Amino acid sequence: MVPVFSGLAFLLGLIAERSGAETPALALFWLGLLLGASTFTPAAIRNLFKGKLGIGLLMTISAIGAVILGYVEEAAALAFLYSIAEALEDKAMDRARGGLRALLKLVPETVTVLRDGVAEQVQAKDLVVGDVMMVRPGERIATDGLVRSGRSSLDTSAITGESIPVEVEPGDPVSAGAINSAGALEIETTAAGTDNSLTTIVELVEQAQAEKGDRARLADRIARPLVPGVLILAALVALLGSILGDPDVWITRALVVLVAASPCALAISVPLTVVAAIGAASKFGVIVKSGAAFERFGTVRHVAVDKTGTLTRNEPAVTAVLVVEGITEAQGLAWAAALEQHSTHPLAAAITAAAQDVPLAAEVTEQAGHGIDGTVDGMKITVGSPRWLDAGELGARVEDLEMQGMTVVIVHRDGVPVAAIGVRDELRPEVPDVVRTLTDHRVGVTMLTGDNARTARALAAQAGIDDVRAELRPEDKAAAITELSEAGSGSVAMIGDGINDAPALAAADIGIAMGATGSDAAIESADVAFTGHDLRLIPRAFEHARRGRRIINQNIILSLLIIAALLPLALFGVLGLAAVVLVHEIAEVIVILNGLRAARTPAPRLEG
Q1: N or C: which end of the chain has fewer CB within 10 A?
Q2: Which domains does the chain have, with CATH numbers?
């Protein structure tokens, strides 16, 4: 409100001056000057004592000089316009940030919990790990948890931007803020009400507001040599002009030079653009942790991608069943599932889920690293790796499945191979289109994985990725990122979601964590987090960052051109103090409006 009162006092002063009331007009100009200067002068003086010379100091010196020369009206205009520009920046920043903390509004204030078999209402913030929430259709989930009973579909669009509802059943994880669309659910909380996936997202966004990017600091880097340089130039203009000509004229021109060289628009436009762009990115599921990360994001020319959980669903599924003559696929699956339902092996769940009418097994024994055996309907059934069990006549076809990137288990009945089951973590359906889009836009793609080379190459071929690096340990992934950077690929981004990806995420120019509810280590090491797992966000986010970068460059060029044009005009007396101030503030409004274009959310389409 202070800039508004400053402007009101200045306006009333102009009216009083036009009416011939000189004394009231002077008093109003002084009021407007003091109000406007109060928004930037105290900070400028504090910074001066700390040895920091900034733009506010130039404005303060210019205003004081104008008053000394008797230009109180111009000084009031300077103070008002600079203060209103600062207020416009703050308002624009607030607009850009609007909706970031609104993520927390996705959490309901109260929630129904079951305690000792009795339903009661509690504050969402009071939830603790282990509470059981009752979530009815149409209600939002208050914190992260696991479905204990009930089946439903969840609308997660407000969190992840994904429009397709997610089907959940007992054992499935759910995230805070999702809307229960169908049946009632009982959910056991895995996170406290004040420390869940939504609060994590908000914390990441607030980090973006706290750290300026490299380009956002450009105004400060320019101001450091510019301020003393301009002060020296103004002193020389005043001194030499006074010796060679009219002191009043040249001291006035020296004052105008001070104002003309102030990089006001530059100081305002760059951080504004960055914050606006980061705020827009959060709306479609891309959380950028800092301005510096956002600016580097726009320079990425190579992407390294983890395989499991990033390119793939991280949900192994049966994709092929081979059987010998006289055995059906259903029988082969059922016998394997009868044993696997007793196993904790990652492939066991996939085989059990694929089978129907699973018979009971007895005398089940699991041999770690090999397989499992037992008795089913009086038959000795053994299920295990081809490295442990002979594939018999299925051998050639088993090798073919393995060449396709499948993990194969062999099924023996009474010591004879009768079936082979291929299990694979399938590619996400959008991966080929995303890779093609990135390639079309000259962004290289490399797969990094700890999986075996054969599986990695098979999936990479489906995805359209030529550069595959397999059987990597976490430190190997980080080394691969360094190698890609040194190869001159431009800025390199790493995309992953697990703890084993953390070193590579930290080593990359831009680390991108898939899913803001994934591994804490991955999120902490990354610069950017996607709240969902839709890889189409990658080219969309790149296009958004490049657009923001173009706007930043436009504002930098415009701001520097304004300074370059005003300096000679001020030096040779073409423009007076009021005119220079007016040009500066018009330029600030222009760059602010231009910067706010970065707040537009990009269309949900494949762009690179």
Answers
A1: N
A2: 108-195 (2.70.150.10), 317-424 (3.40.1110.10)
How far is 424 from 307, CA to CA, in rounded Å? 12
Sign of the CA dihedral running 427, 429, 434, 437: positive
Cβ–Cβ < 8 Å for 510, 297: yes
What is the C-alpha separation between 475 and 466, in angstroms, rounded?
22
Where do runs of H (alpha helix) occur along 355-422?
395-403
Summarize pLDDT for 233-266 with one digit per residue, the tens.
888 988 998 888 888 888 888 888 877 877 767 7
Of 131, 144, 306, 497, the catalytic one is 306
Paired tokens of 151: 């089946």
**CA atoms of 29 and 35, how far apart (whole Å):** 10
503, with CB counted inside 10 A (0-12, 13-18, 19+), is buried
| Single-letter amino acid code for the residue at 391 | A
Q: CA–CA separation, 366 vs 46, rounded Å?
A: 73
**Alpha-carbon span 558 to 465, nearest angstrom:** 41
pLDDT, position 157 = 63
> Concatenated DSSP letters for 444-466?
EEEEE-SS-HHHHHHHHHHHT--
How far is residue 288's CA from residue 218's CA, in Å, rounded to a whole number? 20
- Residue 46 CB contacts under 8 Å (≥ 6 apart), including other chains: none
Q: Please name which of 530, 525, 532 lies closest in space to residue 508, comparing C-alpha atoms.
A: 525
Instruction: State both tokens at 403.
Output: 């060449």
Q: What is the mean pLDDT of residues 501-528?
A: 73
Residue 443 sits at φ, ψ, to 5 deg, of: -110, 115
State residue 121 phi and psi, 5-degree precision.
-90, 130
Torsion angles phi and psi, residue 2, rounded to 5? -60, -45
Spatial neighbors of 294 by CB under 8 A, at least 6 apart, are 208, 213, 274, 277, 278, 281, 288, 545, 548
